Amino acid sequence: MPKFYSAHDLYSCMRVQRARPMKDTYVLDARTATPHFPGIGRYVKNLVQAMPPLLAAEEELAVLLDPQHSGQFVQEHVRRPQIVHLHAASSPFTLQQQWQIPQALRSLKPDNNALVYHSPYYLMPYFLATPAVLTFYDLIPLFFPHYVSPRARLLFRFTMRMALRTAQQILSISQSAAQDLAQYFALDPQRITTTPLAPDPCFCPQPQAEIERVRQKYGLPAGFFLYFGINKPHKNLPALISAYADWRTKAALPLVIAGAWDQRYPESKQLVAQKKLGEAVTFLGSIPDDDLPGLYAAATAFIFPSRYEGFGLPVLEAMACGTPVACSNTSSLPEVAGDAALLFAPDSPSALAHALSQLMDAPTRLQMRDRGLQQAARFTWQRTAQQTLAVYRNLVKNPAGP
Fold first, then answer.
1. Which of the following CATH numbers is that of domain 3-198+381-397: 3.40.50.2000, 3.40.50.970, 3.40.50.300, 3.30.930.10?
2. Are 333 and 304 in contact (CB under 8 A)?
3. pTM: predicted TM-score of the whole model, two decimal places
């Protein structure tokens, strides 16, 4: 059974722990592994699953949890003998974490072993005596300021600077995001390591029975273009709908739009009504995780017109399911897609329409399917965990960082 500690009783617990061999301890903050943080939660979950088998005998992984909100995460992902549980009843949004987490870390560290703290979120404890790692995703609040309130931009900028000052090493999910971060905050690039994301193992070519199940559940046609993602402005969904409306012919495939819907941005649905697309465009809304691989696999092709992505995981998920992909040629997407996707300028209706036309060609789709499967296979959570663990180990050797 895994071991449990709370911030309140860690000091007394450590008297018992000192009796066992001392180990280098890597603390992964998993308090964001909740439905409020679906993307970050998936990142943490996959690291927790992939890292323990890679640990040496003199190393251990401590997973920091908020017991009030982490019950399901513990039940599904971290009941493993290689993992130590560290409990602290404070969320990343509370001021209490600024003293509770450092206290827990100080109590966990015996005098003669090393400790590294890893926060996957920029709202973190900022005054640590422990070497720290921060995962960075994107600069959307700063690159798209007209969609974010001045107060939110100010808070993001301030807390990001605090987090970057605290962390000796930063993990970036793409080279593109690393360059954005280094340029905007004038950081030494040696402090940043790129550790790409990866599709979950469930994203793979699906059996025909699963494809039919999903197709029947959502009333999907035999062939369709798919977009999956939220409708926030940087995702550029209105441009896709406009290009699709102008390009569409009688032989064209319908367009299916799936993903969480933010009511603040109704432009896409308004465009569908204005252009009288009728049943040619379908909005499915949020999709349960269990249905998503089948949805990707059922699609004739996947279209991703985003203007900016820290990584663009849906591109790899679709490829891993054997679905041909066309995506924007901006930010991180070219490095994620490689030569396995049709790339287009997201603000060029003609370029987007040309991509749709190419995807109507069956030999082209077959070639892209093979390339996509090969490209997706280059990204694994084991590799991400190995790269992350290498950063931890380097910090143990050089706690001050570069």
1. 3.40.50.2000
2. yes
3. 0.90
